[in-house]
Amino acid sequence: MAELKTKAHEMAAKQREIGVAEFFARNRHLLGFDNKRKALMTAVKEAVDNSLDACEEADILPEVIVDIVDLQNDRFRVIIEDNGPGIVKKQIPNIFAKLLYGSKFFNYAQSRGQQGLGISAAVMYGQLTTGKAAKIISKIHPNEPAHYYELHIDTQQNRPEILKEETREWKKDHGTRVEIELDGNYAQGNQSVDEYLKETAIVNPHVTIIYTNPKAEQFVFARASEEKPKKPVEIKPHPYGVELGVMQTMLKQTDARTLNSFLINSFERIGANTAKQICENAALLPETKPDDMSREMVEKLVDGIKKTKIMAPPTDCISPLGTELLEKGLRKEINAEFYAAATRSPEVYRGNPFIIEVGVAYGGQQPAEEPIRLMRYANRVPLLYQQGACVVTKAVTNANWKPYGLQQSKGGLPIGPATLVVSIASVWVPFTSESKEAVAHYPEILKEVTLALQEIGRKLGAYIGKKHRILAEGKKRDYIQRYIPHVAEALKELIGIKDTKKVEDLLYEILEHTRGELEEIGIDNPEYDEELAKIGKDEEEKDE
Fold first, then answer.
1. Bridge partners (DSSP) listed for residue 77
2. What is the CA radius of gyration of the chain?
3. Nearest to 421 by CA among 504, 325, 499
């Protein structure tokens, strides 16, 4: 027994608290740094996302410079510079060298960042693989100096370690520049830095990106619109999305003196009448003190909320791109013959509003015999990895694309020369992991993506159908044109016409007149369009 007691003490002596940074340092694959190629893309992605968020929040049209320098032996220097509002001096170390630090986690408004992990995780990865410090320079006003830092992360304490700090002159009026040296691998393709920046330019047509790749080749993704995205408005949480444990915490932390005032002041869409109705459905007194509520009472409150009809949350907290700008972005970056876009009405999952947008580019250089190119986005950020785990992919593969003119094998992406864009905008995107690479399979999201695909599919089907009819008409016309000289010669013999050239001209004129009539009434075939509409209606009723 004494030996067991000794063992217990020995085991207890080995136990200690695990720091957040320490945990992610060992599990960096959770943050998207599980191989060198992906690590390079993720580091660029996190820095660019931060730049775009900062510019939009400050109402600045973003101009982002991305420079990747090949240092040989799988080592790269990544430099991201923006024209954003800059960062105040005291916040620079925490933003770049402390994990789970930021404002977006508590903010019920659409943003690219959510967890306060991204850029600090990139700094940590660079530190782990090269031992080099991250170099940051930031300036908030033309009349103030820039602040320069060289930073490491103390992974055991999850706090910044400042190696160098000074003020510098910097020609920019305002902005931020971050430089990280890291181990990586550069390769072009569908999961590369090149692809991430191109896809970013499509759904952010107000952004200019100047990119120099490791081969010293420069690419400019120029903005296609001066129109800035609508700035999302922060909202309070919606009561339908709050679970029992979260409700308990909110009740403990509130300054409200009664349950009634707690409900009104803590949630969206709850006024005096709705709060009263919730209390009645929960069998709780409106004057109950939040501090006095037991777990059983909180459970009654959550059930009372479920029984009460409450308006959906407001949607000014999200900023969809819109069909016009999405189509502009597609036209700017993808060479095609047909473009279309669609935006669904706002819906809600777990109390969080969201909007699904889709766009398609058909034809051009995309191979006709290969699967379509699928681009997935969450809050205007490209999702390049874990395509098979994403609700968007499930919706695309489950949809029936044959009525819309594309071939498809069971359980696969449709086949055809098309690029399909599917984007979700929400105050809180339900990613499947911390690396934010796939959207979780919520039924509400799956349904909305499916309906959006059907809407864009009908537009695509109408175009492909018209194109096929035009080709069929052209083939028939070729046959007729081939025999016009023979017909003219036969008429000459039958009725004694001397000028066969005139007969040929008249026959060609009749053929051209018929072409005009076909273009006017035959190509826009109402029967075909009605059939597509019927297919869409049947599918929507089936989904309902």
1. 69, 181
2. 30
3. 325
pLDDT the model gives residue 496: 67
Is the separation of the CB atoms in 200 and 48 below 8 Å?
A: yes
Among 126, 98, 95, 73, residue whose Cα is nearest residue 19: 98
Listed residue (425, 350, 385) closest to 30, CA to CA: 385
E strands, 321-406, where? 338-343, 347-349, 352-362, 373-378, 381-383
DSSP 524: S
Q: What is the mean pLDDT of each run of 10 residues along the chain (544 residues)?
A: 66 62 64 85 91 90 96 95 93 85 60 70 89 94 93 86 93 94 91 93 93 95 88 86 88 93 92 93 93 93 93 86 92 92 90 92 85 93 91 94 89 92 92 85 94 94 81 67 73 68 72 56 45 51 53
Own/partner contacts of 391-394, CB < 8 Å, gap of 24 or more, are: 391/438, 391/439, 391/440, 391/441, 391/442, 391/445, 391/446, 391/449, 392/422, 392/424, 392/439, 392/449, 394/441, 394/446
Say how many C-beta atoms besides its own lie within 10 A of residue 229's C-beta.
Answer: 20
Residue-range domains of the chain with CATH: 20-221 (3.30.565.10), 239-307 (1.10.8.50), 323-462 (3.30.230.10), 466-543 (no CATH)
CB 200 within 8 A of CB 209: yes
Measured between alpha carbons, how far is 493 from 490 in angstroms, rounded to an integer? Answer: 5
Q: Which structure tokens are listed for 142?
A: 């033309």
**Cα 405 from Cα 460, distance rounded (Å):** 8
Q: Please give the C-alpha separations between residue 162 and each of 14, 77, 356, 392, 510, in angstroms, as whole numbers.
A: 30, 20, 43, 42, 84
DSSP 519: I
Exposure string over 77-95, b if 16+ CB within 10 A, otherwise e: bbbbbbbbbbbebeebbbb
